[in-house]
Specification:
CATH class of the largest domain: Alpha Beta
Structural class: alpha/beta
CATH topology of the largest domain: Beta Polymerase, domain 2
Strand order of the largest sheet: 8-7-6-9-10-11
Strand content: 15-25%
Low-confidence stretches: 1-18, 352-368
Largest sheet: 6 strands, parallel
Helix content: 40-55%
Order of helices and strands: EEHHEEHEHHHHEHEHEHEHHEEHHE
């Protein structure tokens, strides 16, 4: 009589050591403080060069670097033997300090994490609207640089679709919260309203534009936009009935400020302790929100009398959505990630997908 044993249907490829897999390694605001994360931050303009450097030093079939104010994550298709923590440490040109935790995921877990990130579920401000655009931008830069693989392309395209789906399906996500909105709301509460307050916005990029919009929506009437390129400051100021300043003009008028929002792309501090020493903020008081990474404001400013400084890790937004809503969205995203992993890859003929599909199938009795 033949023996009965449990087995899986054989596939054309096997999941073995040395085969390709999909990995994620990252560091975020839950695992490391701001001063550590900014060492790993990669500006958008530097992503292409950084990807090229990473691929010269590491045998990656495809890779995308997602670098935002709260996280730096490397997604890659690579050989199983790759050492992920060393790969992340390479971005900072130094070993990763052991006391700060990284997170590493592989296969379906990495896919589901990316889907959740794109949907705003992994953000401190749940449902934030910027992250989907950041995921899309990171992917497009990597693809245009020739750094992705067909598999990585498929994962990111489906993750972006999942992020859009979450916003379409749940009306609350249509105009989701943002870090700029949270900062302006914090400023409004701390200063008992924005009307009549002198508000200075440093920078003229996307975050600065979001800050200007939020200030206008909250009744601010005395808003100044300062930027090293005065043309960009004027362009942004004109959109929200604000005034434009050069940086040197801002420094001359610093003692007029009630609230300062910092959102430049500078690699160095634009507000240092010595700038504030000797002005009237010791009596008047000023609130500063630093939304930049790397930081715009020297941390030692906190020691000055009359100055209150809040960085990215200190800006709170409260609970944006109820737990039943976020749980429903998480279930939706998890199901989309599961479908992608088990169906899409198998049908695409991917060696990786076929092997993992076979591993995920339940054992069945067969004859031997």
């Amino acid at each position: 009589m033949p023996k009965i044993r449990l087995c899986r249907k054989s596939s054309r490829s096997s999941w073995r050591k040395g085969s390709m897999s999909f990995f994620l390694v990252g560091i975020n605001n839950r695992s490391a403080p701001l001063e550590v994360r900014e060492r790993f931050f990669v500006a958008s303009k530097d992503l292409e060069e950084t990807l090229a450097s990473v691929r010269r030093h590491w045998p990656l079939k495809g890779a995308v670097i997602l670098s935002t104010c709260n996280r730096v994550e490397v997604y890659c298709e690579a050989d199983n033997s790759i050492h992920l923590k060393d790969l992340l440490g390479f971005l900072a040109s130094r070993p990763l300090l052991e006391k700060y935790e990284t997170y590493e995921k592989e296969g379906r877990s990495a896919v589901e994490h990316l889907f959740s990130v794109a949907s705003g579920l992994e953000s401190d401000i749940v449902g934030e609207k910027e992250i989907l655009g950041q995921v899309r931008q990171a992917y497009l830069i990597a693809r245009q640089a020739g750094a992705t693989s067909p598999f990585v392309n498929a994962v990111f395209e489906r993750a972006i679709f999942a992020g859009k789906l979450a916003r379409r399906k749940f009306d609350l996500f249509q105009e989701g919260p943002s870090i700029a909105g949270a900062a302006v709301e914090n400023a409004r509460v701390l200063s008992a309203g924005l009307e009549g307050k002198n508000i200075f916005i440093l920078g003229a990029g996307l975050v600065a534009a979001a800050l200007a919009k939020e200030c206008a929506l909250n009744g601010a009437s005395c808003v100044f936009v300062a930027n090293r390129t005065i043309a960009r400051a004027k362009e942004l100021a004109a959109r929200f009935d604000a005034a434009a300043l050069r940086f040197d003009e801002f420094y001359d008028r610093l003692d007029e400020a009630d609230i300062i929002f910092c959102a430049t792309a500078s690699k160095h501090f634009v507000l240092k302790k010595d700038i504030f020493q000797g002005n009237r903020h010791t009596e008047k008081g000023v609130i500063i929100f630093d939304l930049a990474l790397p930081r715009d404001v020297e941390p030692d400013i906190r020691g000055l009398r009359g100055v209150r400084l809040f960085d990215l890790d200190q800006i709170s937004s409260g609970d944006n959505y109820s737990r039943p809503v976020t749980d429903e969205i998480r279930a939706l995203i998890a199901s989309k990630a599961e479908y992608f992993f088990k169906r899409y890859l198998w049908r695409s003929g991917s060696e990786y997908g076929q092997a993992r599909w076979q591993e995920s199938r339940p054992l069945r009795p067969c004859l031997s």
